Amino acid sequence: MARHRTSLHLLGIFLFAVASLKQYCANGEPQVPCYFIFGDSLVDSGNNNNLATNAKVNYPPYGIDFPEGPTGRFCNGRTTADVIGELLGFDNFIPSFLSAKGSEILKGVNYASGSAGIRSETGKQLGVNIDLNTQLQNHQVTISHIVDLLGSKDSATEYLNKCFYSVVIGSNDYINNYFLPQFYNTSSQYTPEQYAEVLMEQYSQQIMTLYDSGARKAALTGIGPIGCTPGATASYDTDGSLCVDSMNQAVNLFNNRLKLLVDQLNSNLTGAKFVYLNTYGIVSEYAASPAFQIKIDGCCKVNEYGLCVPYEAPCELRNLHLFWDAFHPSEIANKFTAEISYLALKKIL
Ligand SMILES: *[C@@H]1O[C@H](CO)[C@@H](O)[C@H](O)[C@H]1NC(C)=O
Ligand SMILES: *[C@@H]1O[C@H](CO)[C@@H](O)[C@H](O)[C@H]1NC(C)=O
């Protein structure tokens, strides 16, 4: 109980600090001219809407608390990327790659795709997705338009160096790959340690590609406690624990390596600043706090893929639920995660 009080107290201080920062920076230009987002359904803003996949959600009740209604966001409201965009001072949400038009791309683009992973096969049992390599290729398309808009390659590079980049990826390499042996054989090929290593080798090359494309300020987000999602605890034996511990342990191996990768990138790449966002720790902190009374179950009736059943009314008190559907946090959880993450990423802006 004492521990919980301390956590809550700290969170209160964090949120107060965020509120002060926000006020200080309000009015005028955003803190960076542009914000590029790569990742999976945690930050997807509609890129899967026209794809042949079961991993798309451009229907009610998704978006019930979002100003534009259902957009393809896997949430009742804003994602962490949306909230971070607001804290950075952007007036509008960063457009999805699917919808971005004309000079809009100068503010940034969101390439994220539900079910996508670091590995290209990840999530494909659900249908088509835009894996991280393809997202990086899509970024090249954006860059060529920015060269046209700014008139030269040099001015585009100078511009791209000033942007903020965030990558939220890896959950599906576990949920929709390693822990689905009926579809994928990675768990028979690799121990959890080896798998984390293999993922990190590929991920570090992908981040180098981003660096070569001009990224100099980037946040790499760790994986959250996926073993505690309603989808995980419904599908796997928890052995009396509240969560599927084997999933959380596997994810922590990944996160520990990701932290090391960020340290290496910071010492190897001059002029670049990377930050690791400890989503696992952040979520565990507020999820454990009884004062929040956040319910661990989801807020809507879900289908076989763990997504809300179309047009079914969701729960009323959405701000009391940590989860929206079987896998995705609710807007209130995204808000907490984003506000605490923002304090860490401020250091590299
Ligand atoms: C795992 O699956 C891939 C693709 O389906 C296949 O190429 C590979 O040979 C398999 N590996 C093992 C060890 O079964
Ligand atoms: C950083 O440099 C060290 C020493 O040259 C090298 O072993 C390591 O692979 C590099 N890591 C990255 C992520 O560039």
Automatic annotation (TrEMBL):
<protein>
    <submittedName>
        <fullName>Uncharacterized protein</fullName>
    </submittedName>
</protein>
<dbReference type="InterPro" id="IPR001087">
    <property type="entry name" value="GDSL"/>
</dbReference>
<keyword id="KW-0378">Hydrolase</keyword>
<dbReference type="InterPro" id="IPR036514">
    <property type="entry name" value="SGNH_hydro_sf"/>
</dbReference>
<comment type="similarity">
    <text>Belongs to the 'GDSL' lipolytic enzyme family.</text>
</comment>
<keyword id="KW-0443">Lipid metabolism</keyword>
<feature type="signal peptide">
    <location>
        <begin position="1"/>
        <end position="28"/>
    </location>
</feature>
<dbReference type="Pfam" id="PF00657">
    <property type="entry name" value="Lipase_GDSL"/>
</dbReference>
<dbReference type="InterPro" id="IPR035669">
    <property type="entry name" value="SGNH_plant_lipase-like"/>
</dbReference>
<keyword id="KW-0442">Lipid degradation</keyword>
<dbReference type="InterPro" id="IPR051238">
    <property type="entry name" value="GDSL_esterase/lipase"/>
</dbReference>
<keyword id="KW-0964">Secreted</keyword>
<keyword id="KW-0732">Signal</keyword>
